[in-house]
Structure formats: C-alpha cells, structure tokens
Amino acid sequence: MSEWQPMETAPKDGTPILAFLPPEDEPDFERLCDFVVTWWETQQHFHLEPSKEHPGLYRRVLESVGHWVCGSLPICWMPLPPSPQQVPTSGQEKP
C-alpha cells in the first residue's frame, strides 16, 4: 500500500480513495471511524450574476462546484488496495 499523501494531490476524477478525517471540533458529534472511502464529486449549478453590459439585469452563470463525498474535510489520502481475487469462506485457508 502507498504512503499517506496530502489532499491537494488526490485525484479529482471520481476515483475512490481512502481518506483520513481529522478529529471533529463538535463535541456533540460522535464519528464511528476516522478513515473513509470517498471521491471527488463535481456538481454544476446556475446562479444569477449582475450583467456588466446591462445594469439592472442579471445573467445566468454555470458554475462547477466540487467537494469530497464524506462528512468532514479529509486531511490526507492514499489509493485503495486492489480488490481480492478470491474471498475465503469460513473454514477455508487464505490463498
């Protein structure tokens, strides 16, 4: 497995990654795990912006907004390990 890397280097193409979440600042919030599988998701939406050419009118602007799909902002990441080729069942030896 790879070493932990800063989030700035994580892929932003939808590839799932293993991420580490820092401790929560909210004492009432209890998280079950500090490690999550997440991915970068880009959402496009429109917003209105004043028109520079025609004062008093607005124009629609398409904007892409990206975020990590998890509860907090992760601070580091690593690639996921490869999937197992064969999963042992109970009583079976590991390959």
Describe this structure in words.
The protein is mostly beta strands. The protein has one domain (about 5-80). About 0% of the residues lie in helices and about 40% in strands. It is built from no helices and six strands. The strands form two sheets. The chain has a four-stranded antiparallel beta sheet, with no helix packed on it. A two-stranded antiparallel ribbon has the order 4-5. Strand 4 (about 40-50) and strand 5 (about 60-70) form a beta hairpin. The chain is elongated and about 75 Å long. The model has no long low-confidence stretch (mean pLDDT about 75).
How far the N terminus sits from the C terminus, by CA atoms, comes to 19 Å
Structurally, the number of domains stands at 1
Overall body shape: elongated
Low-confidence stretches: none
What's the main sheet like?
4 strands, antiparallel
Question: Structural class, from helix and strand content?
Answer: mainly beta
Taken as a percent bin, the fraction of beta residues is: 35-45%
Tell me the number of helical segments per DSSP (H or I, 4 or more residues long).
Answer: 0
Spell out the helices and strands N to C. EEEEEE
In total, the number of strands is: 6
Mean pLDDT: 75
Percent of residues in helices comes to: under 10%
Q: Biggest sheet: strands side by side, in what order?
A: 1-6-2-3
Evaluate the radius of gyration. Answer: 21 Å
